[in-house]
Amino acid sequence: MISLCDIAKIFNAGKTNEFSALHNVSLNLRMRETIVLKGPSGSGKTTLLGLVGCMARPTTGRIFLNDREITSLPERFLTEIRRSTFGFIFQQFNLIKGISALENVMIPAYPTGEKNSLLRKRGLEKLEMFDLGKRANTRIEFLSGGEAQRVAIARALINNPAIIIADEPTAHLDSKLSNEFMEIMKDLKAAGTTIILASHDPIVYNSALADQVVEMRDGQVVKDGRL
Amino acid sequence: MAAIEHHRHILDFTLSSLLRRKGKNAALLSVYTLIIFILASVLFFTHALKREAALVLKEAPEIIVQRTLTGRYQPIPTAWGDKIREINGVISVRPRLWGYQYDNVYQANYTLTVPAGNPPEPGSIDIGSGISRMRAAHPDDIIAFTGHDGLPRTFIIRNILDNESQLLTSDLIVLSEKDYRDFSGIPAEQATDLALRVRNPREYTTIAEKITQMYPETRPIVRTEIQRTYDAVFGWRSGLLIVIFSAAALAFVIFAWDKATGLSAEERREIGILKAVGWETSDILLMKFWEGTVVSLTSFLVGTILAYVHVFLTSAALFAPVLKGWSTLYPTFRLTPFIDFGQMATLFFLTVVPYTVTTIVPSWRAATIDPDAVMR
Ligand SMILES: Nc1ncnc2c1ncn2[C@@H]1O[C@H](COP(=O)(O)OP(=O)(O)OP(=O)(O)O)[C@@H](O)[C@H]1O
Ligand SMILES: [Mg+2]
After folding, report:
1. Which Pfam families does the record cross-reference, listed alphabetically (chain B) (predicted)?
2. pTM given for the model
3. What is the ipTM of this complex?
4. Of A3, A62, B135, B147, which is most buried, counting CB atoms within 10 Å of its CB?
5. How many domains, in total, are found in chain A?
């Protein structure tokens, strides 16, 4: 269970450009389920995913991951949790330019010290899942938007995470690729993976996969429905 | 096993990181190498010069007595030496035969000398390595030199001199007394100057005074004066080099400072991404450590090797303007290769270490912030 208790996130607190991106957010997300976040642009979806994924800390409120309070953990524990628990698919991809698609996919596994040949093989497998086997050695900046998005997804899966956080994972994919993505999510769900998605895409939020749909507006949860 | 593999991954990633910013890193490496090259050249050069000077002085006699007539140099009668030896405190007096000879054909200056012990047989000579190189002459070859009367004389080469100090021997011709007198026209019973050994350094001045009283035509030169002359010559040259050295050192500081303060937006973003996907702060620091080490070690090694070649194999060609007077006097002069490891270690710790630190510190700052904040 992931529990968020009365979360608020204020950017640039105390400055003239202070902005309250989230307030009064309380949520319970169950493990092994698929949760979809929806809401208009600027409503705070990405901010919320960042907090859940240990990329940032809330200004106030507390977050529990399987009864463990993570809000106040020191940075090195958060790093450890990010690596061992989460696979994060960023809205802006956040791939590293100048190196190949395959290397990008392998990067999260470097600190595990896995043998290079095995890691390569696994990275290639992930790329092939998304029909990118042929682009493995292409540098990121030469990939199309949809290809880059799929590399970002493959990277999130490399450490076989227990929880996948996907921020607009289908924004750059056509409907065929979007459906393929959802098929892969379905397999992962069947294997017991928790999936948290933020999306504008009906293919995602109308999918039969979703167990819980959370609707957001102006930094608040306006609807939290189990299906 | 996993730890080794872990390091290997990070080193691999560092290298591909460096390669992907080829232009920027190539520029960085060249500037760095150039600075190290200048610093190391100056260090090698001043050190080698000082060493040469020390060797010259070690062999210099305590007092040299010359004869001058209305300010012009004259050969000195050897009989005067016998009288000078009777002065209290003088241990020995040796009449010396030596001089310079300008070679029109090769436009070179030679130093001719008759050694105190083990002179060559008449008809054979020893030559310095500079002359050997220039004239392509080797032991047992026959070599000709033009004497004071413009007529050539031939000699058989006995040895090539290979002394500790190139400054002393590079342009040297060692010959027998008979050949020297014939070559230079100095008559028997006369010498170029007299070299004195004196028991007590405090007596130098009184002995020098007694000699001038005895022979008003003489000019005694005391070792401390010689030392001063050398110090002036070497000091002036080192002084100029110190200016070059400081300029290069300053350039290095500015260069390192720039690194320390500037982490490009792209670099910050990458650190954020690496943290976000699960890299530890220590992994990022390790990567930056490798980055700094690879760049600075490469520059250090290449820069020092180039400086060595420059100073000892091309006779510090780039410092030629500073050494103008020198090169006419010693046309084929080469410094004896010599590296002071203490000095190299100092240079290493003053360049490689600060550079690596300035690579790590700003990254460390970026790596300890929440990844979310760094990525934006
Ligand atoms: N670091 C930041 N500093 C200041 N404001 C921020 C920061 N991050 C986000 N915001 C603001 O917080 C609000 C919520 O942003 P967020 O990215 O969470 O929205 P979103 O729901 O993901 O929108 P979209 O659907 O367009 O992706 C936005 O108005 C954004 O401008
Ligand atoms: Mg968003």
Report:
1. FtsX (PF02687)
2. 0.73
3. 0.93
4. B135
5. 1
